[in-house]
DNA sequence: CAATTTATGTCAGTGAGTGACAGATGACAA
DNA sequence: TTGTCATCTGTCACTCACTGACATAAATTG
């Protein structure tokens, strides 16, 4: 990897860090692109060459985790039903986020803190999910053997379960990857208890 | 109802109609607030006194239907389980939208056409849902007798099922209230077949 | 070192959204 | 009818997110 590429990665992470810090300190609305760019000593125009919008920089890590999730999903064995495969892939992608160096972990926790305190990002999270919806739907249909309304139901139920697992927490709860994995298991148990066997076949 | 109140209702509907027509004719992004306001012969500043944002005017009817849904829900008998009560309320609020005069119906169809062709509104629809989430959650917890993670699961599953029922359709399908009610019944049947009895008790 | 590609800064511009103030217009009582 | 009051509206000035165009600087490649 050349020097140019390394510089870009560094600038991207610096922009994310500066943005998360500003958002958490003085609020999302009160923070401007000019401030973020100034803190990284970069022109505001450059910010928009890295992120398509102000919201995108707040959701940058979430977008990354989506890619990891999709990679894990396609590596799941064929024997698993669609729902089980997605649940396992989500568990693995969560632990993958928990690894990495100190800075990575700090960014992850800051992102969770930001999303917890600003419900306005819910819509953005949903937008991210939707971007991968077609690929997920194709994977579900492939595993089920048919593409019908039930495939949509399976997908919707999974994204819903994942979302509830991430959102429902006491305010004072630590939101690191381990805590989220535990919460995910909790809601998956409820879903399993509510659904008939082979409902997603 | 006084003259002032009637004028406001008229202006509000005129703004919605002008906005929907412009959005459908030349696209959402290409339409400006100035154009909408000019077509109603009102200042752009006045537009923002009726709607908080450009997106709000596109979702205005959806926001109205949410209110109807909540009213129907609180009128449901105590004997119904949370999920059944919400499903019935949704059916009734859909038929309520189907009634009304010619202009009301036209607005409803235009809104559906707009949302079908512009996936960027999905996030906004989700934002609307969330605005009522607390009230729905309270109603579910009240009917179940406890407020725990399962209440969140019931709520999330219902909103998800409703969303899939509204979204999943062939592109050429007519999107009037009757067609949407039929689609809702279809997805509710799948949900019922997938879930164990008394899962939401 | 020279040629080419690519990232960045500067500049000018559009459009959404907001606060403040003044004037217009219904609502209401005498 | 008239005058007072509350409320709605238009105008103006402003902030900020976001974009296209062009010139410059820096990295890559030979």
TrEMBL record, chains A, B:
Keywords from the UniProt entry: DNA-binding, Transcription, Transcription regulation
Pfam family for this entry, one: TetR_N
Domain HTH tetR-type: 9-69
The entry's DNA-binding region: 32-51
UniProt-recorded Gene Ontology molecular function terms: DNA-binding transcription factor activity; transcription cis-regulatory region binding
Domain of life assignment: Bacteria
Gene3D superfamilies given in the database record: Tetracycline Repressor, domain 2
Protein name: HTH tetR-type domain-containing protein
Organism name: Acrocarpospora corrugata
Organism phylogeny: Bacteria, Bacillati, Actinomycetota, Actinomycetes, Streptosporangiales
């Amino acid at each position: 990897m050349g020097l140019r590429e390394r510089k870009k990665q560094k600038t991207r992470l610096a922009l994310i860090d500066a943005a998360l810090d500003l958002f958490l300190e003085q609020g999302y609305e009160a923070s401007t692109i000019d401030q973020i760019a100034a803190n990284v000593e970069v022109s505001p125009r450059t910010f928009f060459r890295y992120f398509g919008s102000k919201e995108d920089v707040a959701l940058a890590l979430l977008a990354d985790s989506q890619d990891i999730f999709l990679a894990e999903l396609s590596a799941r064995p064929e024997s698993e039903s669609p729902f089980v495969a997605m649940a396992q892939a989500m568990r693995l992608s969560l632990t993958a986020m928990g690894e990495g160096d100190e800075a990575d972990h700090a960014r992850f926790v800051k992102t969770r803190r930001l999303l917890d305190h600003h419900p306005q990002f819910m819509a953005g999270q949903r937008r991210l999910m939707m971007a991968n919806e077609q690929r997920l739907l194709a994977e579900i249909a492939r595993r089920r053997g048919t593409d019908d309304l039930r495939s949509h139901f399976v997908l919707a139920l999974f994204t819903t379960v994942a979302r509830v697992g991430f959102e429902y927490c006491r305010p004072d709860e630590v939101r690191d990857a381990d805590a989220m994995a535990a919460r995910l298991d909790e809601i998956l148990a409820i879903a399993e208890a509510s659904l008939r066997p082979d409902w997603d076949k």
